[in-house]
Amino acid sequence: QAVPAGSHVRLNLQTGEREAKLPDSENGKSDMREERRRKRYSDVDVDSNSFTSQELKKALAKMKESEKAERKVRRVPCFKAMYKVRKKFRPIEQLKEEFEKLNVKMETDYEIMVKLISKFNSSASTLDEKVAALYDLEYYVHQV
């Protein structure tokens, strides 16, 4: 069964039936996303079951125009925020160089996983070392 866009859908675990509810914005409360969607599709009949190719092209062009306008509005503060974040953090290459000066080797998770796999595949490793490598690999795989 098709439901209107924006509806809240859930599975009732007691009855096993799927239930749909209209969004709160149609019950009197305002929803900014719903208002933006209405503005975006105001010229197109979105409740019909089928659309003509012209209606679809018109709606797509309107969506692209509104996205471009939103990007232009948000562009300047976004770069400022990104610059502030970059000021707080340093690139990993710089961190590696600083750790090498302190005689500390910094490894990424990928590098550690490669070493553990090679330890597991090595014929020189004992059974206990292979088991330990598998446990450590399990930890890193869950991280990913």
TrEMBL record:
Gene Ontology molecular function: adenyl-nucleotide exchange factor activity
GO cellular component, one term: endoplasmic reticulum
InterPro entries in the cross-refs: Hsp70_NEF-Inhibitors
Biased composition (Basic and acidic residues): 16-35
UniProt keyword Protein transport present: yes
Domain of life the protein comes from: Eukaryota
GO biological process, one term: protein transport
Protein name: SIL1 factor
